[in-house]
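User: tokens in, sequence out, please.
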């Protein structure tokens, strides 16, 4: 009705037809397994019987695809009988509707584009790919469809062709390959595989598809290839050059001489080219920075430029070989055999230098360590003299080796560096033991710094009668003694400096050992404490001080009298006690004299001198400093 109607009526009829179709399809999908009955060779099958018999999976398939599954399962045995050599495809259901896109995916993979799942399924069905070390590798040696074409090619002479009608039969719309019965589109995949491998050229109405065109810019599409006229042999491979090329890049004859292994050989060649290019780049970078050993250049500018030019030219040669992206393109190699052999000599040189640089890089960690050790080492040490001698001898060894580092030379160099490192560690640890407090010394320092007498003496320093500098000097000396009892040789494996305390022999020089120093500090502190205490007691017993004490409060008077009687400072020495002592000593005047000034006054007029001259010099020096002062209230203090 829609066909004979117009306007709104036609649209209404079309809509009703579409609704009816959708409803019919829905009903069929829901009831197909119940209502469909198939007859084949006079036998009837229900859908459940077909599913059970042929293990068909139809879940979630569109209705059309379900019918395809049923029919292909039933007709499979007949198809295999009629077309026993037809390829079998897994993981893909090829139909007249999707075969073109599947074939295009396979051809794109053959000419250099990415390998899709569809392409793999098609090529696996044609036996033109196989897994190799986790990758998919092209091959034609195991494909009966490719070998069938190659057999035909072997029977024609140079310059002859095999016409289309010798490969395909049938009318234009149903052409099939003669032997297997596969469709033209699938057969074109086989032919393109042979082009890729350099075995044939496909002649087209307006050109040809040959091995030199294989790549991302391949000019022909499936519609162009469908119109092929004939196939022929490509130009001959320069076999001597190709053999020398593969052999020169360490590809075995078993691979490149066998057609079935040629793809594997080609992949191995490309992998070696990539390795050599990386080695060339690494070597050029090392030459740009300058090859150094013990921070000394081991190649002059002229030699370096010459070698850099040679390696650069070799890298360009390798890059040109990388443009040969498939075995078929080997026919396009233009380099002569002599030039190739000359380039391969550079490869030997590259490996020699790369090996040399690699071994030097293994020694670099030692040299970096020892260079840092030189900077931190104490000037004048025997180790510094030894390391300079070692450096001179090793630089001479490197020059003598002339970039051909034997294993014996390398081991000798490494042993010398290792020995120097071990000697440094031994010397450093011994020096560290002298400059740092050990466990016992650290305990002694902790005991000394926590002594309650520090608090007493710091309090007494506020009286104004004692010199705080005396106490400060002892304290500074104690603080300058660093404890580091845990250093082990293993701690110096990576860096030549103690990771715990950062001791640097060059800058942290010390005349006496730290442990002896802490003992001296203990003695100095004890002596100073005793001096201050006895001096305080003696001055508090002075007649003037006694008069002042009698004027103090009873509590303060008692505290001072207890000090004089026991000759022991109170614990703690409170601020009130300090004020009381200061009041008691009021009127006493302290005169500070620099010991160096006194020594100068006594010796400057000249030594030796008479006793009388000595007394005169002393009296003149002190007289100027106590002039107009009461001798009974003066207390002289020497500041050392």
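Assistant: Sequence out:
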């Amino acid at each position: 009705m829609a066909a004979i109607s117009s306007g709104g009526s036609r649209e209404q009829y079309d809509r009703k037809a579409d609704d009816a179709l959708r409803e019919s399809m829905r009903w069929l999908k829901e009831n197909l397994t119940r209502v469909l009955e198939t007859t084949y060779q006079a036998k009837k099958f229900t859908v459940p019987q077909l599913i059970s018999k042929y293990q068909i999976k139809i879940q979630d398939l569109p209705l059309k695809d379900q019918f395809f599954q049923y029919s292909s399962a039933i007709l499979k045995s007949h198809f295999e009988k009629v077309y026993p050599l037809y390829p079998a495809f897994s993981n893909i259901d090829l139909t007249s509707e999707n075969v073109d896109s599947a074939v295009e995916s396979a051809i794109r993979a053959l000419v250099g584009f990415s390998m899709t799942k569809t392409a793999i399924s098609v090529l696996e069905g044609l036996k033109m790919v196989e897994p190799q070390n986790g990758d998919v590798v092209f091959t034609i040696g195991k494909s009966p469809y490719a070998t069938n074409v190659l057999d035909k090619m072997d029977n024609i002479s140079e310059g002859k062709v095999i016409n289309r009608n010798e490969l395909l039969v049938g009318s234009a719309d149903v052409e099939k390959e003669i032997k297997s019965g596969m469709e033209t589109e699938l057969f074109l995949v086989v032919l393109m595989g042979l082009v890729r491998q350099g075995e044939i050229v496909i002649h087209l109405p307006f050109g040809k598809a040959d091995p030199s065109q294989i790549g991302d810019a391949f000019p022909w599409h499936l519609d162009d290839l469908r119109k092929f006229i004939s196939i022929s042999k490509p130009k001959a491979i320069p076999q001597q050059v190709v053999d020398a090329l593969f052999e020169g890049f360490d590809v075995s004859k078993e691979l490149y001489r066998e057609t079935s292994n040629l793809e594997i050989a080609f992949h191995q060649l490309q992998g070696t080219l990539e390795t050599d290019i990386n080695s060339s780049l690494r070597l050029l970078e090392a030459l740009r920075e300058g090859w150094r050993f013990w921070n000394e250049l081991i190649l002059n500018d002229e030699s370096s430029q010459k070698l850099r030019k040679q390696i650069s030219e070799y890298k360009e040669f390798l890059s040109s070989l990388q443009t040969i992206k498939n075995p078929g393109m080997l026919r396009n190699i233009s380099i002569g055999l002599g030039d190739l052999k000359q380039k391969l000599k550079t490869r030997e040189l590259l490996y020699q230098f790369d090996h040399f640089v690699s071994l030097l890089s293994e020694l670099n960690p030692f040299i970096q360590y020892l260079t840092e050790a030189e900077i931190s080492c104490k000037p004048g040490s025997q180790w510094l003299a030894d390391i300079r001698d070692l450096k001179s001898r090793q630089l001479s060894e490197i020059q003598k080796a002339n970039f051909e580092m034997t294993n014996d030379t390398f081991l000798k160099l490494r042993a010398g560096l290792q020995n120097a490192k071990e000697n440094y560690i031994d010397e450093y640890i011994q020096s560290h033991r002298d400059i740092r407090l050990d466990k016992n010394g650290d305990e002694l320092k902790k005991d000394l710094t926590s002594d309650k007498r520090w608090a007493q003496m710091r309090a007494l320093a506020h009286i104004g009668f004692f010199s705080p500098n005396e106490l400060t000097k002892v304290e500074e000396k104690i603080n300058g003694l660093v404890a580091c009892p845990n250093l082990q040789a293993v701690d110096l494996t990576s860096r030549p400096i103690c990771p715990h305390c950062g001791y640097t022999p060059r800058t942290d020089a010390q005349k006496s050992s730290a442990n002896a120093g802490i003992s001296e500090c203990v003695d100095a502190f004890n002596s100073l404490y005793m001096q201050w205490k006895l001096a305080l007691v003696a001055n508090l017993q002075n007649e003037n001080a006694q008069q002042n004490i009698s004027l103090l409060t009873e509590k303060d008077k008692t505290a001072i009298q207890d000090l004089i009687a026991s000759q022991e400072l109170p614990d703690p020495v409170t601020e009130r006690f300090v004020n009381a002592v200061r009041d008691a000593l009021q009127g006493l005047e302290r005169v500070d004299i620099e010991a160096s000034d006194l020594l100068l006054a006594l010796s400057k007029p000249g030594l030796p001198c008479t006793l009388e001259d000595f007394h005169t010099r002393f009296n003149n020096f002190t007289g100027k400093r106590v002039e107009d002062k009461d001798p009974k209230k003066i207390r002289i203090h020497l500041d050392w």
